[in-house]
Amino acid sequence: MLPGFGYTAAGERTFRELSAAVARDGFDLYVPSYISRSGIAASRKNLARFIRDQHLDRYERLHVFAFLAGAWTLNPLAESEPLPNMKTVVYDRSPYQERAPRIALDDLRFLTWLKYGSPVFDVARTPYAPLTAPDVKVALVVETLPTKFVKKHGEQARAYGPFEFECDAFRQRHDACKYVAMNHDDLYVRFAEVWPDVRSFIRTGRFADE
Question: Which domains does the chain have, with CATH numbers?
Answer without folding.
Answer: 9-204 (3.40.50)
